[in-house]
TrEMBL record:
It catalyses: K(+)(in) = K(+)(out). GO terms for molecular function: potassium channel activity; proton channel activity. It comes from the Bacteria. InterPro entries: TMEM175-like. This is Integral membrane protein. The keyword DNA-binding does not apply. It is found in: Membrane. The keyword Cell inner membrane does not apply.
Length: 191
């Protein structure tokens, strides 16, 4: 089975996720810059989530660029990833509207963790379809970022019960790790 429909569907869902997130931003009724102050948690939550959605879109694109076949299992694994990504607008809004309170910040971290797990599952299913000697398997290598990120999410979730703002630092650190796509996959995709 070709991968074109999977890519097109995923791109569409991700575009809708970003659209929903931006529509959740409420415009202040005051024209003074000071009116943005109370919206800072909402805006910061949006920026972090926008970066995460961008990271997933970018890495998903690179991963599929070196993938030649998909199966029904790949389609379901991809839907699993899209499910967790589709919860970003809800958890982002809940966390931002409640000024980074404990429960919303912990749930946000849980959704980040589950999206990472879903991405890993998709990666493994794609490798299984292509075989152990696939370009994707070779490009992933040790995948240190994929191993560290869940630990940062778990650490962030644990920190929410002590200092929710500190959890945000863990979530932001995990995002920073992924801002630069894996060069090995980019090189393979270029060929």
């Amino acid at each position: 089975m070709g991968k074109g429909r999977l890519e097109a569907f995923s791109d569409g869902v991700i575009a809708i996720i970003i659209t929903i997130m931006v529509l959740e931003l409420k415009v202040p009724h005051d024209t003074a810059l000071a009116a943005l102050g109370p919206l800072a948690p909402v805006l910061l939550s949006y920026v972090l989530s926008f970066v995460y959605v961008g990271i997933y879109w970018n890495n998903h694109h690179h991963m599929l660029a070196i993938t030649h076949r998909v199966s029904g299992t790949v389609l379901w694994a991809n839907l699993h990833l899209l499910f967790w990504l589709s919860l970003f607008p809800f958890t982002t809004a809940w966390m931002g509207e409640n000024h980074l309170a404990q429960a919303p910040t912990a749930v946000y971290g849980f959704v980040l963790l589950m999206a990472a797990v879903a991405y890993w599952i998709l990666e493994q299913v794609l490798i299984a379809v292509a075989g152990p000697d696939s370009a994707l398997r070779g490009a992933i290598g040790y995948d240190w970022k994929g191993k560290i990120s869940p630990l940062l999410y778990l650490g962030g979730i644990a920190l929410t019960f002590w200092r929710p703002w500190a959890a945000q630092l863990f979530y932001a650190l995990a995002a920073l790790l992924w801002l630069v796509p894996d060069r090995r996959i980019e090189k393979l995709a270029a060929h």
